[in-house]
Design a protein that fits this description.
This protein folds into 2 domains: about 170 residues, Rossmann fold; about 190 residues, Dehydroquinate synthase-like - alpha domain (Dehydroquinate synthase-like, alpha domain). The chain has 14 helices and 11 strands. It is about 50% helix and about 20% strand. Strand 5, helix 4 and strand 6 form a beta-alpha-beta unit. Strands 1-2-9-6-5-3-4 form a 7-stranded mixed sheet, sandwiched between helices. Strands 7-8 form a two-stranded antiparallel ribbon. It is globular. Bound molecules: nicotinamide-adenine-dinucleotide and zinc ion. The site of nicotinamide-adenine-dinucleotide has 30 residues, from helix 2, helix 4, helix 5, strand 8 and helix 6.
Length: about 375
C-alpha cells in the first residue's frame, strides 16, 4: 500500500509517497516525474550498502542510466567541499539540464544532494528517498537544502522542492536505536503542533512505535508527512506557520552548539527543547500545566528522557541570541497554548534568564 500526500508550493507541486517495502517502486515513480535519462544516485556508505542495489535495479528497469555516488556517512559530508566534488562528478558524467539526482539516505544526504541538484546548471530535478525517521517525518519535505560552513550549520543553501518524495518505512528497521529515538522527538513535535487527533493517536500507540511495529511506523510517518506537507504548502519560505516547526529548536540548537555539534543527537536536544518550551508557555502564555505534564509523560514513554543538564546557563543564553533565527538579540520561541495552538514569541532577557537558571538547576537535581 502506498499513501500519497500532495504538497503545493510556489516553488513546485509534488507527491510524498509513504509505504512499507516499496523501495523497488522508485523506478516507476521516477518515470512519472523525471523526464531525463540519467540519474546521479547520491547516498552515503552505510545506506548505500543496504539499499543502493534495490534502488539502482529499479531505476535501470525503468530505463535510466544510473551514476552511483557515495559519500562517507555523517554530518561532516554536508560540506561545501563534498558538494563541490559531487557537482564536478555530475558534470564529468555529462548530466544535462533534464537529468536528475536521487537522494537516498537520511537528512544529511537529503540536504547535500538537494543542494547539489539546486545549484547544478541552476537547478535540476531531485527525487528524495529518505531512509531515517527524521528524514521521512520531516526533513525530506519542504525543499530546504543546505551544507554547513565553518561558521555554522546550514549556512549555505537553496530552496529546492523535490519532484517527489518516496518514504519506504521498511528501511527504518535497520536504523540504529539512537537514530530512531532522535527521529521520535520530531514525531512528538509534529503531533503536538498538529493537535489533539495526532497527539492522542501517538499516546495510544507509543508501545507499538517503540517496538517499531510496521503498521504503527507507517501510520506515524504518514501522519507526519501530511502535517509537514500541509504546513509547507501554506508557507514555503517560513513567513508564518512554517516557523512553528521550530518548536523545541531554540533551546535544542543552543544545547547542540554548547555541547559541541554531534555530541548530543539532534532529536534528544529537541526533546529537551520542547520540554523547556512547554514550561515557558506556562509562564509567558499562561498555558495549563496539564499540557506540559502530558508532553513530559509522552517523551518519557518514548525513551526521550530529560538530559542531565551540566550546562552553563550563560553559554546557553548567548548561543540562543546568536541563533540565525533570533531577530535583534531576543530569541524567538514557539510556545504552545494547547495542542495544535501555537504562538511565536520574542521572550525578554530577564524572563529567559530565570527560566534557563531554573531548567539547569532542575536538571542537576534530577541527575
Ligand atoms: N532540510 C530540512 O528541512 C531539515 C530538517 C531537519 C533536519 N535537517 C538536517 O538533517 C540532518 C540530520 O539527518 P539524520 O538524522 O537523518 O542524519 P543522517 O543522514 O546523518 O543519518 C543518520 C545515520 O543513520 C544512517 N542511516 C540512514 N538511514 C539508515 C537506515 N535506513 N539504516 C541504517 N542506517 C541508516 C546514516 O548513514 C547515518 O550514519 C542534519 O544535517 C539536519 O540539519 C534538515
Ligand atoms: Zn529538528
Amino acid at each position: 500500500m502506498i499513501d500519497a500526500t500532495r504538497v503545493e508550493t510556489p516553488g513546485g507541486a509534488y507527491d510524498v509517497f509513504v509505504g512499507t517495502n516499496v523501495l523497488d517502486e522508485i523506478g516507476r515513480i521516477a518515470a512519472r516525474v523525471l523526464p531525463g535519462s540519467r540519474i546521479a544516485l547520491i547516498t552515503d556508505d552505510t545506506v548505500g550498502v543496504l539499499y543502493a542495489d534495490v534502488a539502482t535495479d529499479s531505476l535501470r528497469r525503468a530505463g535510466y542510466s544510473v551514476i552511483p555516488m557515495s559519500v562517507p556517512a555523517g554530518e561532516s559530508s554536508k560540506s561545501w567541499s563534498v558538494a563541490g566534488q559531487l557537482v564536478e562528478r555530475m558534470a564529468a558524467a555529462g548530466l544535462e539540464r533534464s537529468d536528475a539526482v536521487v537522494a537516498l539516505g537520511g537528512g544529511v544526504i537529503g540536504d547535500l544532494a538537494g543542494f547539489c541538484a539546486g545549484v547544478y546548471m541552476r537547478g535540476i530535478a531531485v527525487l528524495q528517498v529518505p531512509t531515517t525517521l527524521l528524514a521521512q517525518a520531516d526533513s525530506s519535505i519542504g525543499g530546504k537544502t543546505a551544507v554547513d560552513l565553518d561558521a555554522g550549520k546550514n549556512l549555505a543553501g537553496v530552496f529546492m522542492q523535490p519532484s517527489a518524495v518516496l518514504s519506504d518505512t521498511g528501511t527504518l528497521t535497520s536504523l540504529p536505536e539512537h537514530e530512531w529515538r532522535s527521529g521520535l522527538a520530531e514525531v512528538v513535535k509534529s503531533a503536538v503542533l498538529e493537535g489533539e487527533e495526532f497527539l492522542g493517536w501517538l499516546e495510544k500507540n507509543t508501545a507499538d512505535l517503540m517496538s517499531r511495529d510496521s503498521g504503527a511506523v507507517y501510520e506515524a510517518v504518514r501522519r507526519c508527512a501530511c502535517f509537514k506537507g500541509r504546513v509547507v504548502s501554506s508557507d514555503e519560505r517560513e513567513a508564518g506557520e512554517r516557523e512553528s516547526l521550530n518548536y523545541g529548536h531554540t533551546l535544542g540548537h543552543a544545547i547542540e552548539k554548547v555541547a559541541g555539534f554531534g555530541v548530543i543527537p539532534h532529536g534528544l536536544a529537541v526533546g529537551e527543547g520542547i520540554r523547556f518550551a512547554a514550561h515557558l508557555s506556562e509562564r509567558v502564555l499562561g498555558s495549563a500545566p496539564a499540557f506540559s505534564q502530558r508532553q513530559e509523560a509522552l517523551l518519557d514513554a518514548m525513551g526521550l528522557s530529560a538530559l542531565q543538564r551540566r550546562f552553563d546557563a550563560n553559554e546557553i543564553r548567548s548561543a540562543m541570541s546568536n541563533d540565525k533565527k533570533s531577530r535583534g538579540g531576543n530569541p524567538r520561541f514557539v510556545l504552545m497554548q494547547e495542542p495544535g495552538v501555537f504562538q511565536v514569541v520574542e521572550v525578554d532577557g530577564m524572563t529567559l534568564a530565570e527560566e534557563i537558571d531554573r531548567w539547569v538547576l532542575e536538571g542537576d537535581e534530577g541527575s
